[in-house]
Fold this sequence. Notes:
Strand content of chain B: over 45%
Largest sheet of chain A: 6 strands, mixed
Order of helices and strands of chain B: EEEEEEEEEEE
Oligomer: heterodimer
Distance between the termini of chain A: 37 Å
Strand content of chain A: over 45%
Number of helices of chain B: 0
Number of strands of chain A: 11
Amino acid sequence: RKEVEQDPGPFNVPEGATVAFNCTYSNSASQSFFWYRQDCRKEPKLLMSVYSSGNEDGRFTAQLNRASQYISLLIRDSKLSDSATYLCVVNVYGQNFVFGPGTRLSVLP
Amino acid sequence: GAVVSQHPSRVICKSGTSVKIECRSLDFQATTMFWYRQFPKQSLMLMATSNEGSKATYEQGVEKDKFLINHASLTLSTLTVTSAHPEDSSFYICSAGPPGLAGGSYNEQFFGPGTRLTVL
């Protein structure tokens, strides 16, 4: 089983749609969780950290369920500019970051 | 957020040559930097952890004699691909991120812009 797994995608959604991505991780000692966004042929950039209580940043909402070892990202009112690959990243403090395979999103006009 | 730079951004070389890639943290000191490789349509795969003043830690399956890492200062790590072959063609990305950086998320990693290596 891979350490971090994500919905395979791709997700093709119309502008304005709401889309949700799921991520599961296998290491119960994981302490930090992030969603990164990667545009084609570019480096990953932090979208948001994921906190135990859940957190929201504008149209983006991230949730963490430690018991189920599950992370989610919800994008509301999707824009064309949201088209990218979304990477779930998990870290045990002091150890390396583990990236999920990514979920590709295409927002269509 | 913090800034990590990489140089060069793109390199094309002949098979058998060596290529050096630099990763710099511009506004913070990084005792640890990470080197990743990403093949087309695949996720980032950690190659090695670069530790300032000591030997790098390589992931399983990564040849340490082929991918030489030097972390000589708190702001610079270099990755040298020795005797490069076409199968080494990839997108190489470094990251760094000290814990407790003011304004940054806990344990956040900042990525360099990447180096696209093409070996002919």
